Amino acid sequence: MQTTYKKSGLIEKYRQYLPVSASTPVITLGEGNTPLLQSFNIPKMLGCPTLDLFFKLEGLNPTGSFKDRGMTLAISKAVEEGAKAVICASTGNTSASAAAFATKAGLKCYVLLPHGYVALGKLAQAIHYGAQIIPIKGNFDRALELVRELAEHTPVTVVNSINPYRLEGQKTAAFEVVEHLSRQPDYLCIPVGNAGNICAYWRGFKLYRELGITAAAPRMHGFEAEGSAAIVRGEPIKNPETIGTAIRIGNPASWQEAVRAQQESKGKIDSVTDDEILAAYKMLGSAEGIFCEPSSAASLAGLIKHLSDGTIPQNALVTCVLTGNGLKDPDTAQKVTAVDLTPVEADLASLKKVMAL
Ligand code: F0G
Questions:
Q1: Would you tell me how many other CB atoms lie within 10 Å of the CB of residue 325?
Q2: Does any ligand 1 atom lie closer than 6 A to the CB of residue 192?
Q3: pLDDT of the residue at 146
Q4: Of 200, 219, 257, 309, whose Cβ has the fewest other Cβ atoms within 10 Å?
């Protein structure tokens, strides 16, 4: 039997907007085309029934985060350029994604991780995909400095977002938001860590506006965690701290471009506290059936903050980006919701008793 195989992945879908040619080898794991889910319960819970709220579920990418959008392009270009090995510093998701795409491409992958600050699932992924994992006695910012230095002296390709192809791939998420809504949102709320993704979305929205595909572009509202809010404070933070380990970054690599995105879009970069992040994280699970990782919930936490201080109007069309899958961080999920897991006798009477039936 003959099949007509329709190729999947972002490069095939958006190649006209990406820096690829017909001879670029395409390394894909079927990334992109993630759901944009309408929220009905949260607007009511927030007392804003006229709010038009959508969640972009980036945790449904093949390795469970938005990083796959940039990685398909970065790894494809690395193969095109003859690379044999790639390297990244990571708070976890970049390493999981790099490891998976590198394996698919037959490249060696090195990952530098801040020891003790990478969620269990992300570490498990990098191990499973066969990367060489190097935990360092330092934070993400130090790991990225080391990666930059190493790349100057050794034949390895850096696949952090300082690699120009990463953000080009990630901008496709903005295209998808527009396609799902048939217009641009009024506001895009997004977590900010190393500050690459906010720039990527802005590039995508700007391009669609320039091409006349949309009439306007959304305001970009980025949210750092308070304990690592370098951009908000206007200076690097030496020892960043937050429950959102994915965004525990004190000196964002894309700082300047992120500020430009905020200014050009007339948006705002603000911070949210760990308590606000956790409240939003729990709300997504209990009200919408969405399990994202804690850092991802910074987008909703930020929206709630900006609705209550009037920065975002209550009747706006808003997309919150949920950057990563909650399954990556089972420890935090278990810690933040206390449940009794004592086993009961395996008989009907005992069940009826505990279920209060
Ligand atoms: N959300 C998640 C789940 C992330 O993993 C990251 C970044 C961000 C948000 C912030 O995105 O850096 O583009 O501003 N994670 C990187 C990593 C740093 O190594 O996985 P950003």
A1: 23
A2: yes
A3: 97
A4: 309
